[in-house]
Design brief:
The complex is a heterodimer of chains A (629) and B (446).
Chain A (H helix, E strand, L loop, with lengths): L8 H8 L12 H10 L2 H28 L7 H6 L8 H6 L5 H42 L5 H8 L1 H4 L2 H12 L2 H4 L5 H6 L5 H4 L2 H26 L2 H9 L4 H29 L3 H5 L5 H8 L4 H33 L15 H29 L10 H5 L7 H4 L19 H34 L4 H15 L2 H15 L5 H25 L3 H9 L4 H12 L1 H16 L15 H11 L2 H26 L11
Helix pairs in contact in A: 3-18, 3-22, 3-23, 3-24, 6-13, 6-15, 6-17, 7-19, 9-13, 13-15, 14-15, 15-18, 17-18, 18-23, 18-24, 19-30, 22-23, 22-25, 22-28, 23-25, 25-28, 26-27, 28-30, 29-30
Chain B lengths: L1 H16 L22 H9 L4 H12 L3 E6 L4 H15 L6 E5 L5 H11 L5 E7 L1 H9 L4 E2 L4 H5 L5 H4 L4 E12 L21 E3 L5 H10 L2 H12 L3 H15 L1 H4 L7 H14 L1 E3 L2 H8 L8 E5 L17 E3 L11 E11 L5 H13 L1 H8 L4 E3 L13 E2 L2 E2 L8 H6 L7 E2 L2 H19 L2
Parallel strand pairs in B: 1-2, 1-3, 6-7, 10-14
Antiparallel strand pairs in B: 3-10, 4-10, 5-8, 5-9, 5-10, 5-11, 12-13
Helix pairs in contact in B: 3-15, 4-16, 6-18, 9-18, 10-13, 11-13, 13-18, 15-16
Classes of the chains: A mainly alpha (629), B alpha/beta (446).
Chain lengths: 629, 446
């Protein structure tokens, strides 16, 4: 977009960075420079945002560090040092003490094993997500695959669900009494198929479930690159008779490498911070160990949180490196007007589509159906209606029970429709998600705008990193940080703390969406308004926002939808009935799968409705990713 | 790959941690000071301890009319008891319109929430129903954050045991009992050692996710309960004794180092070691119960809250008749499970201490106050006068259909010639936990 205005003196001054006429000052040069700097609203805003983000991001992190050297009454540090308050290095020395065989074993189980397990789980999740999501992205964006629209929508369902619900579904499907004790899962009960224990507990299922959950992420990020990739390069290679594998490895792969790296970083840090998936699938990781150790080794558990933070910072550095690497590709990622779909063949396009229809049936539709069915079973996981009980054994009690005096196998709970705890929790989650999204979306958009306007400034770069850092921090570590921070501020177990934590954690969604789109926006657009003395806020509302509305709305939508099903970040910050995801986890842990399934359905339907409404109104959509266009 | 990663991490740490040493030379601070001049909530509770329910209820009405009392507890039934309490106050004063909001955090987070509330600038919670005597002692009583209140009407009631249930005040003792699925006729659980026999994997909540389970293991080393373990061991066939003897000999050397007393402690330790390496960890007693009652769980066993059996809906594949309470077998030897308590306490920062005291007194002295728990098997009030009889809960139309549901009651369960429940003692558990906790964690990982 360009403007046809004559270059006026004011514009020339604006291009030189001179202040507008009204702010010419006559003081000393330093003051003049300061006045000039602050005459641009984006500069003042950047300063304020930088200070706020630095404090809000770093203060909780410093709190964790302090907590690791603080004495906790009732914990081992207090017991062994005899202190009831104050500071000690006991937690650090004791956790890493390997002087005796007992200490060595404790070191292994409290630190080494969880660390190694976490790294392995995160790596395998990345590999799975990249291969599965990336391949799917290629098929949807670059081939003539059938059922694209359906598959594109259904593929991201696992990302909409709270991540551990897939873990629960996995266990209920594959567990076997003959192999691991307890009762049979659906496959064993109905078909007599007994899977080995490693298949439904431990590293393998944890990695697969997380990989499935984040493959949607991979699809969104890699798909965006594929969509915008210039097909001319590949076409030129084909014209030159280059073999297909060479085209892929020499042209396609290098172009999507930045997206793959972004996905790796995001999936790695997200998997690392996952608590519920390894918890349900019985795999000892840093997060599960953190929760276990916080009973009587609270300070040492804090060290695990510090370790997760260190991983987050490593991710940030890696992200910086890959982002700088991405610059070399931007010259070739201009949208081509000649995108050509790869022909999968008459049978291939149907066959591959059919395979994905079946796969997504298990990862998306089956869980939904299982959730719906679960709410009508007589006992949690009791599929006796399939094995001789008949349809008559199904019940509506989980929905319709209106009193808790007569025991109806409800563990003292009212049915979903009458259960005010569930509805209050849902309202609480909605409120937190809406407020966090509003704050994160607004701050993130402003960060993106200010950074784009000061793209060569080191301060802008720093603010951008501060805004992005929480995203690469594992959720549990951020949760721990805000738990300690919130406790010391007296706002523990309040919606305020949840909203603050959600805001900080999700600003990156908005800041990245905003920054990417603002960078595409020519300065000329605003300059023409500056020349006409249009105030900054009016320029934003009348020019910037309307042009970038799709990206900006994505910056609000993604935090909202993520917060709506977020549990790990919030689980340490409030009681379990305050919001619906912690309540959902409570019901899952209690084995009341009918309630957790009903809540899952409520969440998914809510997200789908929101997605559809926003898509209808603005064209932005979750499956099209950040930026939405 | 895993080994290489482990080695790399270990090497990095060994280098980085050299030189770190304890830096604190602080002197231990004294515990909470006792003052003859009580103030604030402590003073109110001191006065309240001399009042009858009637007097307490009137003070509660004065204090909280039009207000909301926030309670927090490990049992969701606190909300039901709260409804009954409000009704009781309204029976005295129909215009009373106070309310109670009940929060139920799971497991350990209650300590976090309470401590955060107590140390914050504004305080929300007026009372708590809390479990895990060990942590209550070390985190809440030793720090003075929770205060004890013994109602006069409870103290004066016949049959209450102030020493056992007064400090801190216990609402009830809850039992977790050994159960097994009886559909496998070859399954044999007539001795507590059968649950740790070779190949046995009883379902149980993780001892680090529900610490009362770990308290049970601590309590097993107490001389009385260690004695039960030895007695049960002596009743085993010679072949089984020989099998377990290896473990007993292996851990015998640890007894002194762990500060345990009594010659039978090694039997308790051996059982604990086998238990923590063999049990099948589950997230909660609910899913364990769901599993155990199914036909596909034939021969499986578990140690879970007894009252969970109440929620089994009879179906083609699930039935309470499929399970047997191990201790109800005539020839059963050893503890039949363990008992832990729900305690009622008041934060030192309670915004409505009179109402909190009245509510607590209501729950431990009045039938309606305990009815929320009393209507079920496996929960026994600290005031025997308000317990309900559940000895025939398994009868349907006069026929003993679900024998596992016939609760034999607190006296039987705690008797040395009955269920031999291992009862939680906060003082003992907190004394041995520092050493024993690590020992258990190491044992669990082989």
């Amino acid at each position: 977009m360009s403007t046809n205005v004559t270059l006026m003196p004011e514009r020339a001054a604006a291009q030189r960075g001179d202040p507008p006429q009204g702010v010419q000052s006559s003081g000393p040069p330093v003051l003049r420079r300061v006045a000039t700097y602050f005459s641009k609203p984006q500069n003042g805003l950047l300063l304020v945002l930088g200070i706020v983000l630095t404090i809000s991001t770093l203060a909780p992190l410093v709190s964790i560090l302090i907590d690791t050297v603080t004495v906790h009454p009732g914990s081992i540090d207090s017991d062994r040092t005899g202190l009831m308050s104050g500071y000690t290095l006991f937690n650090w020395t004791d956790l890493f003490d390997r002087s005796t065989s007992t200490k060595e074993k404790l070191f292994d189980q409290n630190f080494l094993d969880p660390t190694v397990n976490t790294v392995l789980m995160s790596v395998f999740s990345c590999v799975f997500a990249i291969i599965y999501g990336g391949f799917f992205a290629y098929l949807v964006t670059r081939t003539n695959l059938k059922f694209k629209k359906y598959l594109s929508t259904i593929f991201i369902f696992p990302y909409m669900m709270p991540q551990w619900t897939l873990a629960v579904v996995w266990q209920n499907l594959f567990k076997s009494a003959a192999v691991g004790g307890g009762s049979d899962g659906l496959l064993a009960a109905v078909f007599g198929i007994h899977t080995p224990q490693w298949f439904y507990e431990g590293l393998f299922p944890s990695s697969v479930v997380l990989g499935l959950h984040y493959s949607a992420f991979s699809y969104i990020l890699i798909g965006a690159i594929f969509r915008n990739m210039d097909a001319n390069l590949e076409e030129a290679a084909v014209i030159l008779n280059t073999p297909k594998w060479k085209v892929f490895s020499r042209i396609t792969l290098p172009m999507i490498t930045p997206a793959i790296m972004s996905t790796v970083l995001l999936v790695f840090s997200s998997s690392m911070g996952s608590f519920p998936v390894p918890h349900y699938l019985k795999f000892s990781t840093l997060t599960t160990r953190y929760v276990e150790m916080s009973v009587n080794r609270q300070g040492q558990a804090g060290i695990l949180a510090v370790e997760m933070m260190v991983f987050g910072i490593i991710m940030l550095v890696a992200s910086q490196l890959t982002t700088s690497g991405r610059k070399s590709y931007t010259t070739v990622t201009g949208k081509s007007g000649q995108t050509q779909e790869v022909n999968l063949g008459a049978i291939g396009r149907w066959l591959i589509a059919a395979i994905f229809v079946v796969l997504t049936l298990f990862t998306s539709l089956y869980p939904m159906l299982a959730f719906a069915l679960e709410t009508f079973l007589p006992n949690p996981g009791d599929y006796s209606f399939l094995t001789g009980g008949g349809w008559g054994s199904l019940t509506t009690k989980w929905w319709l029970t209106s009193e808790n005096l007569s025991e109806s196998g409800m563990y003292g709970q009212l049915g979903v429709l009458y259960n005010t705890t569930i509805w209050k929790g849902f309202a609480g989650q909605f409120w937190v998600a809406a407020m966090a999204a509003l704050a994160a979306g607004t701050i993130g958009t402003l960060v993106g705008y200010c950074v784009a306007k000061n793209r060569r400034s080191r301060w802008a770069n720093f603010v951008n990193n501060m805004a992005f850092l929480p995203y690469l921090m594992p959720s549990l570590a951020v949760g721990v940080a805000f738990f300690i921070f919130g406790s010391s501020m007296g706002i523990f177990n309040t919606f305020l703390l949840l909203i603050i934590a959600g805001t900080i954690k999700y600003i990156p969604f908005a800041s990245r969406a905003s920054l990417n789109s603002m960078l595409q926006l020519s300065n000329e657009i605003e300059e023409s308004a500056i020349i006409q003395d249009i105030p900054w806020w009016k320029r934003m509302l009348r020019i910037i926002v309307p042009i970038q509305k799709s990206s900006i709305i994505s910056g609000y939508m993604l935090p909202f939808m993520t917060a709506l099903r977020e549990m790990t970040l919030f689980m340490l910050l409030c009681s379990q009935t305050k919001i619906i995801t912690t309540e959902l986890n409570y019901f899952d842990e209690m084995g009341l799968y009918a309630f957790s399934s009903a809540i899952n359905l409520m969440l998914i339907v809510t997200i789908l409705i929101c997605n559809a409404v926003v898509n209808k109104l603005t064209g932005a959509s979750l499956d099209k990713g950040i930026g939405g266009n | 790959m895993k080994k290489a990663l482990r080695a790399a991490v270990a090497c990095l740490l060994a280098g980085s941690m050299l030189g770190i040493s304890a830096c604190s030379d602080d002197k231990p601070e004294p515990g909470p000071t006792t003052s003859t001049q009580l103030t604030g909530v402590a003073a109110i509770l001191d006065e309240a301890q001399g009042m009858t329910n009637e007097e307490l209820f009137r003070r509660a009405i004065e204090e909280s009319n039009g207000k909301t009392l926030y309670g927090i507890g490990n049992s969701s039934r606190g909300a039901t008891a709260a409804t009954a309490f409000i009704a009781a106050l309204q029976a005295i004063d129909p215009s009373y319109n106070g309310t109670i909001e009940w929060t139920q955090p799971k497991n350990n987070s209650i300590f976090t929430i309470l401590n955060a509330d107590i140390t914050s600038a504004s305080h929300e919670f007026s009372m708590t129903l809390i479990q895990d005597g060990n942590q209550i002692q070390t985190k809440m009583i030793n720090t003075g954050n929770l205060l004890n209140f013994i109602p006069k009407d409870w103290r004066d009631a016949t049959g209450v045991d102030i020493d056992a249930n007064g400090t801190p005040l216990a609402l009830q003792t809850l039992s977790k009992v050994f159960l097994f699925n009886n559909l496998d006729v070859n399954a044999n659980y007539t001795n507590v050692w059968d649950f740790v026999a070779e190949g046995s994997a009883p379902m149980f909540m993780g001892v680090n996710s529900e610490p009362v389970g770990k308290n049970f293991l601590y309590m097993l080393t107490e001389p009385t309960y260690a004695g039960y373990m030895k007695e049960a061991f002596d009743k085993l066939p010679a072949a089984q004794q020989a099998y377990f003897q290896k473990t007993v000999d292996e851990v015998a050397g640890d007894v002194e180092g762990l500060g345990l007393e009594g010659e039978n402690a090694k039997y308790a330790l051996a059982w604990i070691k086998l238990w923590v390496t063999q049990y099948n960890e589950k997230t909660d007693d609910g899913p364990i119960c769901n599993d155990l009652v199914t036909t596909s769980a034939a021969g499986q066993s578990a140690l879970i809250v007894y009252s969970k059996l109440r929620s089994v809906e009879e179906s083609a594949t699930a039935s309470a008749a499929n399970v047997t309470v191990a201790a109800y077998q005539n020839d059963y030897a050893g503890p039949g499970g363990y008992g832990y308590k729900h305690y009622l306490m008041i934060p030192k920062t309670s915004p409505l201490p009179w109402t909190a005291a009245a509510f607590i007194s209501f729950m431990v002295t009045e039938y309606d106050g305990f009815a929320a728990w009393g209507k079920d098997i496996g929960g026994y009030s600290s005031n025997p006068n308000i317990n309900q009889d559940h000895s025939e809960d398994g009868f349907v139309d006069g026929v003993d259909t679900y024998p596992a549901k016939n609760d034999k009651g607190y006296d039987w369960w705690t008797a040395a010639d009955g269920g031999r429940l291992v009862l939680e003692d906060p003082e003992y558990a907190s004394r041995v936990s520092a050493n024993l906790s690590d020992w258990i964690d190491v044992a669990a990982n082989g």
